[in-house]
Amino acid sequence: MSHFTNILKYAKPYKKYALGHIISNIFYALFGTLSFIALKPMLDVIFDKKKQPPTTVPKFTNLNEIGDFAEDYLIYHMHDFTGGDKSKALLFVILLIVVMFLLKNIAGYLANYFMVFLRNGVIRDIRNKVYQKTVELPLSFFSEQRKGDIIARVTGDVNDLQYSFLPVLEIIIREPLTILFTLIAMLIISPQLTLFVFIFIPIMSFVISRIGKSLKRKSGRVQKEQGVFLSTLEETLTGLRIIKGFNSEKEFNDRFQESTNKFYNFSNKLLNRQNLASPTSEVLGILMVSGILWYGGNLVLSDDANTILDGSAFLVYMTLSYQILTPAKAITRGIYNIKKGGAAAERIQEILDTENPLKDKENAIEIEGFHSDIAFKNISFKYQDEYVLKNLSLDIKKGETVALVGQSGSGKSTIANLITRFYHVNEGEILIDGININNITTSSLRKQLGLVTQEAILFNDSIKNNLKLGKKGATDDEIIEALKVANAWEFVKDLPNGIETNIGDAGGKLSGGQKQRLSIARAVLKSPPIMVLDEATSALDTESERLVQVALENMMKNRTSIVIAHRLSTIQKADKIVVLNKGEIVEQGKHDELIAQKGVYHKLVEMQSFE
């Protein structure tokens, strides 16, 4: 129930729609009950049951006699309208019933009208909130999660809320009020018979709660398995070339089918348990109606003046008792839906409640530029158990190009992850202009940084919009100038729509070298004072590497650059080369100095010269 309360918090911005929904439902329940009560005078006319009309307008005296007052009031006005004519009296009552049903349905439409805005607004806000939190969370969170599971939460779980939790908002007022008004009317008609009905209510509640007990657990298994097959689908689409190249279609197909079979079995168990709701409440309702028929029939046949119930009142009472079944079934479904939706709400809340360790401090500093140096002071860092960097210290002056080299796993890319604050150091500190980056707002820190990664990450959009991620208000001329600096204009100008050309999913319409030059152009357009290049040419062929290397050299002019290099031929002009081994600096200096030392760097260069 706590998850249901959390979801209801998102309804606050839509209070006016909620209020309109509640008021409309009150009238819906009221007119629904009155439309059945109005049957009694019609039945009295048909059965020729005569009751002397009051000579004056009846006046309300006390609550105990409200039933007699309502009947006398209606008879008085009906007689006044019809002049005692039975046909006119029948027409009057029929018109009254039609009006009641019309008002009931108008109120029902208005309730649904307001609910549309309330429900869709809540779903939109929850989905936006989950996406926003997903973007804000650190990379470490996603290294432990399946992408498909995250997608399942943003799509499937939110949809589950739409069809499980939120419909409960529709019945939370309407159905209980319908039952309440109906019971009041039944109590007025026959207190003895209504007390008999009350015996069935706790029995029905107990049976329903027993059936719905395991729905949340079963629903959780369904949603978890949905995340598994969506993950398989996402991995398949991402790695389709490798899957086909290694003839692995069958393995992935088997993995996908295994997950969907589990989903099939879990869903069957869940839905079959859920399907028990309607027939169970129907059977219990019929048992209740049967009991009323037996007990009420005896009251009609009884000669006791204190318990006697006339035929028309009994028929109306039976109609009202059956009228309770519809809202009772709706409430039963609502209880089941809350149980089922609880698992979805819990999975969504898990993301929303996840703490972001990289969140800005309360009094974080906004920096406007980069002025002097970057300092790594005795930093140590581990992703899980083993330290990737150990007590590392490094100074980078403004305007310097510093290259980080070393074998895979030596900690090069980790330094890039730390300076961009994708992760926090475990020990030590990183300073920019003497300020610990943990005390700087993430936004202003990243404004000073340009990032070009080994894998060119582009989006299914135009070249222009991909580059404008670097600078939101960039003009076409600025974009073209950035493309020229990145050696990309030479192929962009020949595309059908130039910078407006869509490059496909992940830039799939372009070659690897072209994609990398576009990612460099994006960094150039941003024009940050510090560039971080994480093995930007390692995945390219020789010709593409040459073009990209020229682009990188153009970009690094008059900037502070941290270059993580795999191919050592690309960093020989660096002001400082830092050699890493198992998370520690083993050598540093210029290219010629390190070659002369004949140490680790010399061996790395020699190894690559034979490749």
Describe the structure.
The chain is α/β, with parallel strands linked by helices. The protein has two domains: 2-352, ABC transporter type 1, transmembrane domain (ABC transporter transmembrane region fold, Up-down Bundle), CATH 1.20.1560.10; 373-609, Rossmann fold, CATH 3.40.50.300. The protein is 62% helix and 10% strand. The chain has helices at residues 2-8, 15-37, 39-46, 66-82, 86-136, 139-143, 147-163, 166-189, 191-198, 200-211, 215-238, 240-245, 249-275, 277-301, 311-352, 412-419, 442-447, 463-467, 476-485, 489-492, 512-526, 542-556, 591-597, 600-609; strands at residues 373-382, 387-397, 401-405, 427-432, 435-436, 449-452, 530-534, 560-564, 576-581, 584-589. It has a six-stranded mixed sheet, with helices on both faces. Helix 5 runs antiparallel to helix 7.
CATH topology (fold) name of the largest domain: ABC transporter transmembrane region fold
Task: Measure the end-to-end span.
Answer: 64 Å
Structural class: alpha/beta
CATH architecture of the largest domain: Up-down Bundle
Regions with little confidence, pLDDT below 50 for 5+ residues: none
What would CATH call the class of the largest domain? Mainly Alpha
Q: How many β-strands, per DSSP?
A: 10
Helix content, binned percent: 55-70%
Mean pLDDT: 77
Number of domains: 2
Biggest sheet strand line-up: 6-7-8-3-9-10
CATH superfamily of the largest domain: ABC transporter type 1, transmembrane domain
| General shape | elongated
**Over all CA atoms, what is the radius of gyration?**
37 Å
Q: Provide a count of the helices.
A: 24
Largest sheet report: 6 strands, mixed
Strand content: 5-15%
Oligomer state equals single chain
